[in-house]
Amino acid sequence: MSDIEERVKKIVVEHLGVEESKIESDSKFIDDLGADSLDTVELVMAFEEEFGCEIPDDAAEKIVTMKDAVSFLTTNSN
Amino acid sequence: MFNDRIAFVTGGTGSIGQAICNDFIKNKCSNIFSSTTNLDKAKNIDDQIKFINLDLKNITQDHLKEKINFEPDFLILNAGLNRDNLFLRMSDDEWNDVMDVNLNATFKLVKFFLKGMVKRRFGRIVFITSVVSFTGNPGQTNYTASKAALTGFCKSLSLEVASRNITVNCISPGFISSNMTEKLSDEQKNQILTKVPMKKLGNPSDIANTASFLCSDNASYITGQTIHVNGGLALI
């Protein structure tokens, strides 16, 4: 597991209160991990802080699964 | 009551804005910021209120990033503009200016500050609307439209952020003795007073007291509501 994936998982566990073992690459934040729409906004804000990058609204809207988050942050983080 | 809280009140040089800021001072708010386009007038106001020059007709998020370096707990959108005219004669500018200052600036400012409130899990947002947006008023199609829009905005936003301990409410003033109503003729004022069951204009402090209440812990279960402060002028 990459370092980025680890860090993303940690944030998701903290914010959504889900068990790490329940999180898979395809897990959707809303449908599978119990997030509501405001949770997803907060997750994006947490990713921005952790990875020192800005995630514009149109990109944020496309981050629906763990895989989406890891992929975006791999390309865009500092 | 408000130790350690930071407030931002738009239109702090107006009668109601000043009263709101003064009430926050009285309640020991640690930092009070306000926006104005009239920095000269601001110089004559209590210097505990920190004024920034902000033209609500023309703000961008970048603009705000430059000028603003605080994160308010209390956000009072009080600045309002009226450009009255019969609808048939209303110009595009008269319509757009009022929408820009009363509605669009509110959109931009809330967008700018809301993230911080969500992160801190605390916020008190208050929109100052107006009794006329509920009753209608000839000559004010633009003003009443902008204020009515704020009511809808308040309701929807309040539902989105309620779970984050952020309340969003409106205060709808009736006829308040202020810079806006000063412009009315004596005849107009008397006519209005016949419609007000309490037979008097309100005071800016009536609005300020309500704003402080909505920001206080006593109002923490109130959200999405409009508090009408109008001496009985309209019962909504």
Write structural notes for this entry.
The complex is a heterodimer of chains A (about 80) and B (about 240). By secondary structure, chain A is an all-alpha fold. Chain A is about 60% helix and about 0% strand. Chain B is α/β, with parallel strands linked by helices. Chain B has a single domain (about 5-230), classed as Rossmann fold, CATH 3.40.50. Chain B has a seven-stranded parallel β-sheet, sandwiched between helices. The longest helix of chain B has 29 residues, at about 90-120. Chain B is globular and about 50 Å long. The chains are: A mainly alpha (about 80), B alpha/beta (about 240).
Largest interface: A-B, 5 and 7 residues
Biggest sheet of chain A, in brief? none
Count of individual beta strands of chain B: 7
Order of helices and strands of chain B: EHEHEHEHEHHEHHHE
- Category by helix and strand content of chain A: mainly alpha
Adjacency order of strands in the biggest sheet of chain B: 3-2-1-4-5-6-7
Q: What is the molecular shape of chain A? A: globular
Structural class of chain B: alpha/beta
Q: Determine the CATH superfamily of chain B.
A: NAD(P)-binding Rossmann-like Domain
Q: Sheet with the most strands of chain B?
A: 7 strands, parallel
N→C terminal distance of chain A: 19 Å
| Number of separate structural domains of chain B | 1
CATH topology category name of chain B: Rossmann fold
As residue ranges, the low-confidence spans of chain B are none
Mean pLDDT of chain A: 90
How many structural domains are formed by the residues of chain A? 1
Properties at a glance:
heterodimer, A: 78 residues, Non-ribosomal Peptide Synthetase Peptidyl Carrier Protein, Chain A, 4 helices, B: 236 residues, alpha/beta, Rossmann fold, seven-stranded parallel beta sheet, 9 helices
Outline the fold blueprint:
The complex is a heterodimer of chains A (78) and B (236).
Chain A: H1 3-16, H2 37-51, H3 57-61, H4 66-76
Helix pairs in contact in A: 1-2, 1-4
Chain B: E1 6-10, H1 15-26, E2 31-36, H2 39-43, E3 49-53, H3 61-67, E4 74-77, H4 92-120, E5 123-128, H5 132-135, H6 141-161, E6 166-173, H7 179-182, H8 186-195, H9 204-215, E7 226-229
Parallel strand pairs in B: 1-2, 1-4, 2-3, 4-5, 5-6, 6-7
Helix pairs in contact in B: 1-9, 4-6
